[in-house]
Amino acid sequence: MTPMEFSCAGETLHALPAGALYWPARRLLAVADLHFEKGSSYAVNALKLLPRHDTRQTLAILAALIDHLRPLTVVCLGDSFHDRGAIERLPTVERAEIERLTRLARFVWIAGNHDPSPPPGGWGEVAEEIADGPLVFRHEAQFGFSSGEISGHYHPVAALTVQGRGIRRRCFLTNGQRLILPAFGAYTGGLNALDPAIAQLFPDDYDALLTGRDTVRRLSWRQLRPDATLASTGWVRERR
Questions:
Q1: Which residues of 161-198 are buried (b: 16+ CB within 10 A; e: fewer)?
Q2: What is the DSSP secondary structure assignment for residue 233, as one 8-state letter?
Q3: Relative orientation angle of helices 92-104 and 54-69, to the nearest 10 degrees
Q4: How far apart (Å, rounded) are the C-alpha atoms in residues 161 and 223?
Q5: Alpha carbon distance 1, 180 (integer Å)
Q6: Which residues of 20-59 are buried (b: 16+ CB within 10 A; e: fewer)?
Q7: 237 domain residue, yes or no
Q8: For burial by CB atoms within 10 Å, which of 28, 102, 167, 182 has the most?
């Protein structure tokens, strides 16, 4: 696992291939949009036939990062639980693993639009947002706010063509002043990094940090391509 070192608001940060962010100066690990128990939500509502082990997969990756990095603080940037009944549906093994992890580090659960209620007592702190030095951690980016903002919510993915083949990768998005994390959950979808909902948050140039199996690759937005649905409508991002 080779992280990519980059700067945001003057702080040195590491983008990890797993889709998590590490801030060495604070020993802080941040993840966004875990969506625990999304699979069981679909199973209960009979909307899709998804395997019900997404929480186990997501926790396994998170646990490996915590065991390796030994962070002092873990910040979960909202939408950690998929719906109102997610906590009640947690299997015994997964619940025990969350309890183990929350004993290893200080957990801060940022409230997101999918989080209906705080996690059980003893699992950590709950906050709308937290500020630490020049960085502010919140669930959704604020339009017009850019200095040191770290957020999730949009599940950004980058689309590009490599040797004639179209690929999509989860990605971080940054302009050096604000940062949007990819979704960390195993069953989460993604929004194209060129989508207007995201692009409007970066009025000037921005880069995508694409996650791979073992590395992170940095590309300009100019090297990405829109989804087919956007291309068919003739939508093209223009710069002055």
A1: eeeeeeeebbbbbbbebbbbbbbbbbbbebbbbbbeeb
A2: T
A3: 20
A4: 9
A5: 21
A6: bbbbeeeebbbbbbbbbbbbbbbbeeeeeeeebebbbebb
A7: no
A8: 182
How does strand 165-174 pair with strand 207-211?
antiparallel
pTM above 0.85, yes or no: yes
Beta-strand runs (E) in the chain: 4-8, 11-15, 21-23, 28-31, 73-76, 106-110, 125-127, 129-132, 135-138, 149-151, 156-162, 165-174, 178-180, 191-192, 207-211, 216-220
Query: 9: which 2 tokens?
Result: 């608001």
- The type of residue at 77 is L
- Domain of 89? 4-232
Asked if residue 239 is part of any domain, the answer here is no
**Residue 240, in any domain of the structure:** no
Please give the tally of structural domains in the chain.
Answer: 1
Q: Could you tell me whether strands 106-110 and 125-127 are parallel, antiparallel, or unpaired per DSSP bridges?
A: parallel
Query: In CATH, what number is assigned to the domain containing residue 61?
Result: 3.60.21
What is the maximum alpha-carbon separation in the chain? 55
The predicted pLDDT at position 167 comes to: 85
